[in-house]
Amino acid sequence: MVRSARILDLDGSVTSQARLVERLGNGLDVVSLRELGPAVRYLPSKKSAGELDAAVCSLEPVRLTLTGSGDFHHATASILKRFEEPLSLLVFDQHSDWIGSSPCPCGSWLLDALRLPHVERVVVIGTDRKSIEGWKILHGPVREILFGRVEIYPLNCKASRCLGRRRGEPACATLTRGLL
């Protein structure tokens, strides 16, 4: 049977939701990774992140993967490695998660996802202004933003032109290319 959904059970937060598990039905695959959970929660070391990557990369890709709390969102980069066909990534997050100088995968996982050739487009919704203004945007995927591979719909900024700001506008307003 081809699985349509998977739970990477890192902390029990998804598997404890009986109604959700029931609705996902027979196509659900539950992979217990609770022994890795504490080490990869939020700010994992490179060693722990590598262990998670190895565990996830041994799995077949599925259409929907649930990882538990938001403390495990950086597992997305490992999940995406299993795909070969072109795809678009939709991210709901208040943080940009593309700071290349970040000492851990939690702050830079989106850059890892953008390095994958089959990730054609990334749309980030809900990023907070403080996560993308000033120097933070310059350490992000500026080229991908300029060429439309990354679109950002921030939570608390007005839309304007791509990276060409008007006097008096906040820097983050330049990222949405007038699409709001």
Q: What features would you describe in this structure?
A:
Strands 2-1-3 form a three-stranded parallel sheet, with no helix packed on it. Strand 1, helix 1 and strand 2 form a beta-alpha-beta unit. 32% of the residues are buried. By secondary structure, the chain is an alpha/beta fold. The chain is built from eight helices and six strands, in the order βαβααβαβαβαααβ.
Beta-strand percentage?
Answer: 15-25%
Total of DSSP H or I helical runs spanning 4+ residues: 8
Order of helices and strands: EHEHHEHEHEHHHE
Q: What ranges have pLDDT less than 50 throughout 5 or more consecutive residues?
A: 160-166, 169-180
Write down how many β-strands occur, each being a DSSP E stretch of 2 or more residues.
6
Brief write-up:
The protein is of the alpha/beta class and 180 residues long.
Element layout with pairings:
Layout lengths: L4 E5 L8 H7 L3 E5 L4 H4 L5 H12 L6 E3 L8 H6 L6 E6 L16 H6 L4 E7 L3 H4 L2 H4 L3 H5 L3 E4 L27
Parallel strand pairs: 1-2, 1-3, 4-5, 5-6
Summary tags:
8 helices, three-stranded parallel sheet, 180 residues, globular, single chain, 17% strand, disordered C terminus
